[in-house]
Design a protein that fits this description.
It contains five helices and no strands. It has two domains: 8-54; 80-157, no CATH class. By secondary structure, it is mostly helical. It starts with a helix and ends with a helix. Helix 2 (83-97) crosses helix 3. The model has no long low-confidence stretch (mean pLDDT 77). The longest helix has 51 residues, at 3-53.
């Protein structure tokens, strides 16, 4: 028997004798309940040692990020560069959820856009005001119709 196998056999036998002594001590101290307690702790210890001793497969290598050509250069466009766009997108989203947000946020913005495009009848694009300010706003199809009408205004004036 080689020296390494001898040490392993001694370690295993010492572990088995230690576990048996702990189980006997638990039974002597508290009967069946003590035996169950010690057995539970022993099983937990065996699982922890086994998990530490058993090696899993090698982890996959992490791929490097693609490096930009010029790391000092920022991307061409960022959302922070267009705060008005972010505000308009937020107004559109909230207008669908709440009639109040539509009436006091998006409707006024649509009116300003229509006036800026040279269309004096901005109120017609937004539609009539609703009596229930607590209900949901217009649906997505209605909002798309309004935006499409605003986009065609300059072409209609030519």
């Amino acid at each position: 028997m080689t020296r390494r196998k001898g040490r392993k056999a001694v370690a295993v036998s010492a572990t088995v004798i230690g576990i048996a002594a702990a189980l006997a001590g638990g039974y002597a101290a508290a009967g069946a309940a003590g035996l169950i307690d010690v057995a539970t702790l022993t099983a937990l210890g065996v699982l922890i040692v086994a998990r530490g001793a058993v090696r899993g497969p090698e982890p996959r290598p992490v791929r490097e990020k693609k490096q930009r050509r010029d790391p000092g250069r920022r991307p061409a466009l960022e959302a922070a560069d267009f705060p008005a766009y972010t505000a308009i997108a937020s107004d559109l989203e909230w207008a669908r959820m709440s009639r109040r947000h539509y009436e006091y946020g998006l409707r006024a913005r649509l009116a300003r856009v229509a006036v800026a495009l040279g269309q004096p009848r901005a109120g017609d694009l937004a539609g009539p005001k609703a009596a229930d300010a607590d209900g949901p706003g217009p649906d997505l199809a209605t909002l798309e119709r309004m935006i499409a009408a605003l986009e065609t205004l300059p072409e209609a004036q030519k």
